[in-house]
Amino acid sequence: MPSGIPGRGRAAPRHPVLAIPAPPGRQWGMAEIKTKPTDADVREFLEGVTPAKRREDGLALAAIFREVTGEDPVMWGPSMVGYGTYRYVSPTDPRTRGDWPKAAFSPRKAQLSLYGLKDLPEGAALLPKLGTYTEGAGCVYVKKLDDVDVDVLRRLIAIAWSRGDDPVPEK
What we know:
alpha+beta
């Protein structure tokens, strides 16, 4: 059988319906994770955030997350500032796995997005004490840092930081 990848002796995995080869290094049925760690400079990113209040909040969050985790930040994708990494397994599709920051934030124009704060039961139980926020599927939205109790935020970050890798389901 001819190879689907030039220079290889075996055929590439083929799409079950379309019968076309999978891209090199990939398999059909596995989504590519788009948000990954990058080498982008976190400080440069934060100093370029607009408006000015969002930039100030982003720099303050970076200091708080750094203080609580003891880790240097890493850019995840173009706009997420992450701390630490854990290995996740999707509860809806155990074949979907990847790395994700234990705790992270993104100073978006409309609001601050905080990640990892409600992933563990202890964090979800403490979240109502945070202050004024709304929730998305995997994050907490805050209009401005002044709207939250920073001591509660620190505790939520510490809880998120304690997270271990997701267990791999047995076959």
